[in-house]
């Protein structure tokens, strides 16, 4: 069994997709053993509790990045995490995280990295930027976390069209439904089955 710890900050639809996948047996040997939130009122915490998953809150408010990263890494070690998943986690963590868990922390980003990513690109802001640029396709990326914000090895990507009359909310929903909720559980399963290799900073899923 592989312990999966999921980090959240908000609604937790990606967490829900992971929970549903585990129930279907689609996480392979992966088991969500703990959900950690950066905010007290994240609805993701309710989703975890409704499914009997242990929750912890490590509030970000008023805590600097390095101190916050120290607290998070300590909690992840306590939880004996094999895989850490950032699923709508809105805090940028320091390099101690990937150093402690090299190629074992994954993030889902709601755009096609290396476009529309990095500091300031999170949540709806990403989809606003996509619409402002007028690009015709967008999507989501699941990648390993390294010391560069949204810069780690890309594991899986999927695309959706951008339609003429899209709003950021409509586009966000299309990206989530068609890409994020499918690819995040898939990447988690591949990891737990030992099917992702990283060589020279490039991730390759075996058997894909
Ligand atoms: C998702 O679209 C996720 O990709 C994005 O926030 C949303 C969270 O939704 N994450 C980021 O922007 C991180 N940089 P959720 O809480 O319903 O899973």
Describe the SSE topology.
Layout: E1 2-8, H1 13-24, E2 30-37, H2 43-50, E3 54-57, H3 65-78, E4 83-86, H4 96-100, E5 105-109, H5 124-133, E6 137-144, E7 154-161, H6 168-192, E8 196-199, E9 202-205
The structure holds glycinamide ribonucleotide (GAR).
Glycinamide ribonucleotide binds at residues 10-14, 87-88, 108-110, 122-123, 126, 176, 180.
Describe the model.
With 208 residues, the protein is an alpha/beta fold. It has one domain: Rossmann fold. The chain contains six helices and nine strands. It has helices spanning 13-24, 43-50, 65-78, 96-100, 124-133, 168-192; strands spanning 2-8, 30-37, 54-57, 83-86, 105-109, 137-144, 154-161, 196-199, 202-205. The strands form two sheets. Strands 3-2-1-4-5-6-7 form a seven-stranded mixed sheet, with helices on one face. Strand 2 (30-37), helix 2 and strand 3 form a beta-alpha-beta unit. Helix 1 (13-24) packs parallel to helix 6 (168-192) and helix 5 (124-133) crosses helix 6. The chain starts with a strand and ends with a strand. The mean pLDDT is 97. The structure holds glycinamide ribonucleotide (GAR). Glycinamide ribonucleotide is lined by residues 10-14, 87-88, 108-110, 122-123, 126, 176, 180.
Shape: globular
β-strand percent reads 25-35%
The helix-strand sequence is EHEHEHEHEHEEHEE
**Radius of gyration (Å):** 16 Å
Estimate nothing, just give the exact number of structural domains.
Answer: 1
Number of strand segments: 9
Question: What gap, in angstroms, lies between the N and C termini?
Answer: 22 Å
Known CATH architecture: 3-Layer(aba) Sandwich
**Which residues form runs of ≥5 with pLDDT under 50?**
none
In CATH, what is the class? Alpha Beta
The largest sheet is:
7 strands, mixed
Mean pLDDT value? 97
User: Helical amount among residues, as a percent range?
Assistant: 25-40%
CATH topology: Rossmann fold
Which small-molecule species are bound to the chains here? Answer: glycinamide ribonucleotide
CATH superfamily: Formyl transferase, N-terminal domain
């Amino acid at each position: 069994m592989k312990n999966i710890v999921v980090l959240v900050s908000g609604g937790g639809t990606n967490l829900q997709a992971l929970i549903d996948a585990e129930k279907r047996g689609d996480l392979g040997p992966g088991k969500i053993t703990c959900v950690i939130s950066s905010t007290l009122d994240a609805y993701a915490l309710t989703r975890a509790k409704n499914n009997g998953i242990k929750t912890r809150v490590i509030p970000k408010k008023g805590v600097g990045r390095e101190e916050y990263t120290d607290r998070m890494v300590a909690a992840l070690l306590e939880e004996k995490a094999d895989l850490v998943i950032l699923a709508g986690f809105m805090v940028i963590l320091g390099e101690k995280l990937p150093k402690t868990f090299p190629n074992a922390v994954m993030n889902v980003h709601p755009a096609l990295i290396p476009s529309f990513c990095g500091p300031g690109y999170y949540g709806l802001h990403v989809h606003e930027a996509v619409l402002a640029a007028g690009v015709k396709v967008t999507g989501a990326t699941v990648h390993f976390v390294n010391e560069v914000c949204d810069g780690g090895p890309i594991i899986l990507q999927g695309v959706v069209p951008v339609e003429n009359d899209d709003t950021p909310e409509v586009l966000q929903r299309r990206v989530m439904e068609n890409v994020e909720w499918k690819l995040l559980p898939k990447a988690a399963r591949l990891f737990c089955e030992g099917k992702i290799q990283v060589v020279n900073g490039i991730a390759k899923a075996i058997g894909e």
